[in-house]
Write a structure and sequence with these properties.
The chain is mainly α and 382 residues long. Helix content is 58%, strand content 4%. It has helices spanning 42-48, 51-60, 66-78, 84-92, 99-112, 115-118, 124-149, 163-172, 178-191, 198-207, 213-224, 232-243, 246-258, 276-292, 296-312, 319-328, 336-357; strands spanning 24-29, 32-37, 40-41. Strands 1-2-3 form a 3-stranded antiparallel β-sheet. Strand 1 and strand 2 (32-37) form a beta hairpin. Helix 14 (276-292) packs parallel to helix 16. The radius of gyration is 22 Å and the shape is globular. The model has no long low-confidence stretch (mean pLDDT 93).
Amino acid sequence: MSESLPERYYPGLEGVISSETAISNIVEREGAGVLEYRGYRIEDLASRVGYEQAAFLLLHGDLPNRDQLRDFDDRLRASRSLPDPLVRILGEIPAAACPMDVLRTSVSILAHYDPDQSAAATDHAANVRKAERLIARMATAVACRERLAAGQEPVPPDDRLGHAANFLRMVSGKVPSEKVRRAFDGSLVLYAEHELNASTFAARVTVSTLSDLHSGIVAAVGTLKGTLHGGANEEAWKLVEAVGSPDRAEAWIQDALARHERVMGFGHRVYKKSDPRAAILKAYCREIAAEIGDDSWERIAEPIERAVVGQKGLPPNVDWPSARLYHYMGLPLRLYTPIFAMARVAGWSAHVIEQIDHNRLLRPRGRYIGPTHRQIREVDDR
């Protein structure tokens, strides 16, 4: 009589390979974190392409040539407007509602107005078309909701502007400077994809049942809402703001570490030595701080970063500098995680499409640790 192999438990599924993917790769080489989108290093992408090119790469498999980029950009710009019923709903939802809850609702409603969704088209090409429209419309939904929640009229999309500049204008009503546009565009590239993080995994699990792309994105948005995932950049800003001044930074962080408080924006499940995205955004922070003439937040962040790395061995992750960068741009704290989502929808969609194209139902097992062989007693004897 054979015995079954002993079960091995991987808390949080850490180290478990659940899927093969050609979308992105995260490794550590020579003590440094490396991130690649379809084989291209993130440092090269962030310095040489904008979000539109990165999104095309994730959805279509390679960087676009000039004609492909023009056509893709035209499709995005043509898809920016929201259905009127969604705009009305965004104005009726209570102003205090969580922005990620509102975004989750927006994606669900957008499904009803997508022509491929209504036609029940689920082939590869249809899913790519759905993804392109979502990339354009999620950005508009985030900006529209922000304006309405603040008691302001929505700013319509401007077809003369690229994705990053158009979003910033829809939020503030002003066209950003070229340095701000470039830095924000770079942040969207860096947030666009990151292998099987929690929200991407949730999206893949959802569509592995042969559910649709919009349902997968709704699941991803709900997952990203959690502070251990997308909300980390908001918590990182709250930490910097709590310190308040460069003079207090050293003592404040030492006290926090002595109390064993968790310092958000540091450490990563995969990157043990360094997050390549953090270094890129840190450079943008310095550039925009110089443009606005106030580097006090950089001088607060530096000793905090030095102490956490030195004493805890935890490198800063992408959320640590992005919090300051978005503050410099005048973006409200409540927008930080929705911005993450409107960038990551490109990566989420690529994974959803890949999962559907090569599907196997994702159904892990659980190791049972409860009681066994229990006998049912009569109700009066319990």
